[in-house]
Amino acid sequence: MNSNPSHPVIVGKVAGVFGVKGWIKVRSETDPATNILQYSPWYLNNDGTWQRYEVQEGQRHNKGLIAHLKDCDDRDLAASLVGYQIAVDRSQLPQTEEGEFYWSDLIGLKVVNRQDVELGEVKGLMQTGANDVLVVQNGKNELLIPYVIDHYIDKVDLEKRRIIVDWEWLELDES
To answer: From edge to edge, which strands make up the β-sheet containing 50-53?
Structure first.
């Protein structure tokens, strides 16, 4: 079933199949992981085309999650979805508090330092255990900036689509 979400937010991925009745294994990017099961519909995408699926059931299984989607009643159909990204429409997510952001809000923002030197664009974030880290792309270079408010991150300005950081840009001599 095709349907485009107005503002998709990636929340996971179809990681495999479970059983013969169309259940899928889910790798969640929500915190906690089981939160992904609270959302329906899901929008699945592998090739730029969104497919809308109602979540009928979902549960924790061993160390992972499994789900059953409406009209996905056999293993072959479930197997065809493996590798697909799982998104929900932004309108399904709870409002953030002041100073809080979803990772998807930060992707694509320009990163500049206090001297107004552009360091690049946020391409992703990663968890390290201690704190999250911005992955900033600048041409062929990649910067990893700890996402620590009031230490490295001075301001996130969604309206101006930029993040101001306390970070130096060092040019390396390539000779």
So the answer is: 50-53, 42-45, 85-89, 8-18, 23-28, 64-69, 55-61
More confidently predicted of 101 and 23: 23
Tokens of 89: 């429409």
The superfamily in CATH containing domain 8-91 is: RimM (2.40.30.60)
CA 161 to chain centre: 18
Interatomic CA distance for residues 126 and 132, integer angstroms: 6
**pTM higher than 0.85:** no
Average pLDDT over residues 154-170: 91
CATH number, domain 103-165, options 3.40.630.30, 2.30.30.240, 1.20.120.1770, 3.60.110.10 = 2.30.30.240
- What 3-state class would DSSP assign to 116? coil
Q: Tens of pLDDT along 78-90? A: 999 999 999 999 8
Report the distance separating Cα 130 and Cα 146, nearest Å.
9
| Position 49 confidence tier, pLDDT thresholds 50, 70, 90 | confident
CA distance 152 to 113: 10
